[in-house]
Specification:
By secondary structure, the protein is an alpha/beta fold. It has a single domain, classed as Rossmann fold (3-Layer(aba) Sandwich), CATH 3.40.50.1000. Helices cover 21% and strands 26% of the residues. It has 2 helices and 7 strands; from the N terminus they run E-E-E-E-E-H-E-H-E. The strands form 2 sheets. The protein has a 5-stranded mixed β-sheet with strand order 1-2-7-6-3, covered by helices on one side. It is globular. It starts with 14 loop residues before the first strand and ends in a 10-residue tail after the last strand.
């Protein structure tokens, strides 16, 4: 099958791609390599939760990894077994509440904390790219 464009790039430096028309924000961290085995995760409630305990983050720093030691080990095992890690997020708040820069910084901080290469996809318009409501 044909791979999505984000999976066709060769490994290299970290890069953000912002497709405003589609409402899609993409990022690959340094060292990310696309593989046929993709381990995809929703970010909120799966990888991170708010530090404050509020249902929605108060700011770009209101997050913590969920069960950090176990999470890091499980994700490392996936990488070791040939998977690439792809974090996916609905970010319908971007046009209003969340700045693109704030989100980029948050995602880069999450990746740095995990210490593993990831790709990140955020759909922030209410369109076909978002999961069903």
């Amino acid at each position: 099958g044909k791979m999505a464009p984000i999976f066709q790039k060769k490994s290299g430096g970290s890069r953000w791609t912002h497709k405003e028309a589609e409402g899609l924000l993409e990022w690959q961290s340094e060292g990310f390599r696309a593989t046929p085995k993709v381990a995809g995760f929703d970010v909120d409630g799966t990888i991170i939760r708010t530090k404050s305990g509020a249902p929605f983050p108060k700011d770009a720093n209101d997050w913590q990894l969920i069960q950090e030691t176990k999470l890091r080990r499980a994700l490392q095992d996936l990488v070791d077994s040939g998977h690439c890690l792809v974090f996916i997020s609905n970010q319908a708040g971007i046009p209003r509440k969340v700045s693109v820069q704030g989100l980029q910084q948050k995602v880069q901080n999450i990746q740095a904390r995990l210490g593993l290469p990831i790709a990140y996809l955020a759909a922030y318009k209410t369109n076909i790219l978002r999961k069903p409501v």
